[in-house]
Amino acid sequence: MLPRRAVRATSRPSIWLALALGLDAIIAVIAILIGRGLNLAELLAAGPLLACARCGGRMTALVVGYAIALCAIVTGVIGAPSTSSEGYRFTIVGGAGVFAGFVAVIRTRREGALIRISERVQRAILRPLPAELGGVAFASHYQSATTQALVGGDLYDMTMTQFGPRFVIGDVKGKGLEAVGRCAAVLAVFRELAFADLQAGRHASAARALREASALAEDAGDATLTARVLAIRGMNEADQGRHDAAVRLLAQSAKTAASARSRRQDAWSTGVMARSLLLAGRLEEARAAAERSIGICDREGWNAFMPWPQALRAHCLAAAEQWDQAREDAENAFALACQLGDPCWEGMAGRALALLALHAGDGAAAAAWITDARQRCDRVPDRYVWVSAFVGLGHLEIAARQQRDLLIPLARRLYQDALRADLPEFIAWALIYQAEAGELANLPMVRTLAAGIVNPALQARAAALEATRA
Length: 470
What we know:
Shape: elongated
Oligomer: single chain
Number of strands: 4
């Protein structure tokens, strides 16, 4: 422990300043004692060169002035063999001093830039704790045990989960940027990621995380990060039926991603935007967005995302009664989704195939496809709840025409799932189907929910119910 403290102490600028001044003083005394026999005055350049290694520009300039003054004193006491010899001494010391000052200034600027970067990294990783969370008040103070440490492995954070507030504090093994990477990884695991919250239907929690992420992205000035945050914000808005707001955020995300040459993010944002455009009744724009996303995925060879825009384009084509093209897209999406083994993509493509079978008059195939789609998208516990609800809504549409005895149980199931996952658009649809089947108790709630949802088809059905009841 003591050797480490001694090493840290010797790295302080004040220690190096004292060493430089002391070294030049010793050189000057020895030069005076020896006299002209051995010309040591030029060695006074060692002081400024030593100081520039750790001291700033001002301290180094002080040592340079000190060295020149000592050179003048030594020359005045012992003299010089000639005028040219005297000028040579001052040239050596002065030249070394200018070089040392230049090095000190450059080094100080670089260290200042490193400190600013380090502080930004530290702020990004160790964010300020809220004064209150979950009804509990908090206060915190952080100070590194090493006074000159810029970044390291100290970590602390708190967050709200569905089980209440949670707090973590620790120190990862290692120092410097390596420790920062480990620290960031630990905190990423601890913090409930906004995307995971969104997929699970915890939209309020996702919104809180997204507000923090937006601030970090703005502070970092990272266009790709900004595009990602905007995209997830748009997805969060879409899940709650606010499709106009979702389209604005996702369009901004796609534009930002394109400017940053983040092509996959552009494809993702545009593909998710196609969903909101479809549900908002803007079919031509939805199809164009899906086709643009497909085009980017194709050029990038990004098959992992391709089934999503393919399935959405199939829904757009079906809405435009272009049945053959819709079936081709849906079949391609389903085949690729099965190859990837992605439950959400399989569910989206299976839903499209079910509705296409319904249009073709094959009720048995439609029922089989939608049942299979529901099983596929629900086979994992961390599924994207919106897709599950969307498939459930498709099941209701098929049941309303082919399996009336299943209509009420399916509507109740969708209502419970959507209520649990905070999906007001699907809550409203479930209540509409219940009301159309004769359960009118919750009809007033439909009007309230529909008012905040941008979905012309839903609002038209809700208005028709109101007119029938009147």
